[in-house]
Amino acid sequence: MTHELIASRLASASSNATSGNATASGWWRDAVIYQVYVRSFADSDGDGVGDLRGVRERLPHLARLGVDAVWLTPFYVSPQADGGYDVADYRAVDPLFGDLSDADALVAAAHALGLRVIVDVVPNHTSAEHPWFRAALRDPAARARYHFHPGRGPSGELPPNDWESVFGGPAWTRLPDGDWYLHLFAPEQPDLNWEHPEVSEEFDSVLRFWLDLGIDGFRVDVAHGMVKAPGLPDIGHGAQATLIGTEPLPFFDQEGVHEIHRSWRRLLDSYPGERIGVAEAWAPTSERLALYIRPDELHQAFNFRFLNCPWDPAAMRTVIDESLAATASVDAPTTWVLSNHDVVRHRTRYGSLDRARAAALLMLALPGSAYVYQGEELGLPEVTDLPDDARRDPAFHRTAGQDGLRDGCRVPLPWAGAEPPYGFGPGGTWLPQPAGWGDLSVAAQTGDPHSTLELYRAALELRRAMPGLGAPEAGPLTWQSAPEDVLLFTRPGFACTLNTRPTPVELPAPGRPVLSSAPVETDGRTVRLPPDSCTWWAM
Ligand code: NOJ
């Protein structure tokens, strides 16, 4: 069945569906949220860097795609040492991306299209160019808002503890006057000291600033990191990088962060229209991650266990079950995510476009909220052959190129045309685009019933038209018996099959196919599931 057929069959059913109704209750519980990496989405002024006006001009693409909300990565004033996650002024737009009137116009245009807008907030660290840190460099008396400490060793020549930066190397940098400061990320991103009352006061004010401008929520960067264990104790053994997200660490997932999230929830709830907080948090278990989304804390947390899951049906089933159970215990929706601006695109991780398409249909059939990273709806692969001198990821440069390969998923999007910049903007692109992306552009895929873009459009349309496909309240997910390497689950009126084998698999048809990532053959009684495919069934 083609996507067009499905679309017409659904047209009447979906005509009543609302898109981002501003007063709907619990909109975020099953929302599909599209991540815009602003630098790489669309460039309106020809400087090769995407900007807010570019996003505004391309909003119709997102409305047509059928998402509920847009999450914008940081566009605040920043030296761009870490793609804008180094903020020098939390209340101003970097001239690279426009100005406040562009932010205002973007929010208004999105709302007019029924799309909500979520922005990033970066509370764990500022830029080294933030006025507070500049003052701290000048004057030791102004250092209490950060973590400045004397070093160890006879003349303080050793860092205060053994913590490592997530981007490689020590988490401490020494100033010429002998003091060391903490940066869990790049040296240009000094960690704030959340014990200092001015820090929380300042962030309350920053949140209010953007809420007053009309945004619908925040994606909270490093939501697990703001509070450090008292005394900043050593970890005591090496291999810190492998422990992140799997073991308790003195700088991540400390109890104190929950008090901050509780107070932010109160602040969010004081605004009308269900403004939400989304935690980018790494916790050792699904249960600990669920603590971030208790009813009085944030609304959602990214489910990185799903993102990290290999193409293995048993592992997928376990992650799905454990994620649903953990979030149900706190009465929150589960989130599902396959790609973002920090990881290798899932088409490349899973090894093929077929698997990427299948994984997308699996994700969009699960109860809860789903995150779509820009370009995955085009089936973009990771760009793996960027020249070293084009790369901007600070981790790449801090580990002599062994790590931090986060540029390959950030290459500017292809919109139209056969040659770079493929309609990205009137100039070049800040990262080079590969040859051959013309066939992957939005224009090339639009109207092609076999394209990945039309698959996403059809899936999102169906998600709206089949009441409650994404909604946890619509009923439980039940696993049914299936051949080896095949996952089959049902929800009320609906079934989903995933064949993870590289060969076709035959089984009794669970219903009538309504959407598939690859053509399915069925005589109504049995079905031959194509290799590496996912199919949605009406029952
Ligand atoms: C998580 C963000 O997604 C990533 O891009 C950034 O480098 C770190 N937090 C530090 O802010």
| β-strand number | 21
- Rg over CA atoms, rounded to whole Å, is 23 Å
Strand order across the biggest sheet? Answer: 11-10-9-5-2-1-13-12
**Ranges with pLDDT <50 over ≥5 residues?**
1-24
Largest sheet: 8 strands, parallel
- Helix/strand-derived category reads alpha/beta
Mean pLDDT: 92
Helicity, as a percent range: 25-40%
Helix run count: 16
Oligomer: single chain
The rough form would be described as globular
Beta-strand content bin: 15-25%
Q: Could you tell me how far the N terminus lies from the C terminus, measured between alpha carbons in angstroms?
A: 16 Å
- Bound heterogens, unique: 1-deoxynojirimycin
Q: What's this entry about, in short?
A:
The chain is an alpha/beta fold and 539 residues long. The chain has helices spanning 3-14, 52-57, 59-65, 100-112, 131-138, 197-213, 240-243, 257-269, 286-290, 304-307, 313-328, 346-350, 353-365, 394-398, 442-445, 452-465; strands spanning 32-36, 69-72, 76-77, 89-93, 116-121, 148-149, 172-174, 180-182, 217-220, 276-279, 300-301, 335-337, 369-373, 478-479, 486-491, 494-499, 505-508, 512-516, 521-522, 526-529, 533-538. The protein is built from 16 helices and 21 strands.
Written description of the protein model:
- It is a single chain.
- The chain has helices spanning 3-14, 52-57, 59-65, 100-112, 131-138, 197-213, 240-243, 257-269, 286-290, 304-307, 313-328, 346-350, 353-365, 394-398, 442-445, 452-465; strands at 32-36, 69-72, 76-77, 89-93, 116-121, 148-149, 172-174, 180-182, 217-220, 276-279, 300-301, 335-337, 369-373, 478-479, 486-491, 494-499, 505-508, 512-516, 521-522, 526-529, 533-538.
- With 539 residues, the protein is of the alpha/beta class.
- β15 and β16 (494-499) form a beta hairpin.
- α1 (3-14) packs parallel to α16 (452-465), α6 packs parallel to α8 and α13 packs parallel to α16.
- The longest helix is centred in the middle third of the chain and has 17 residues, at 197-213.
- The two termini are 16 Å apart.
- The structure holds 1-deoxynojirimycin.
- The site of 1-deoxynojirimycin has 10 residues, from loops.
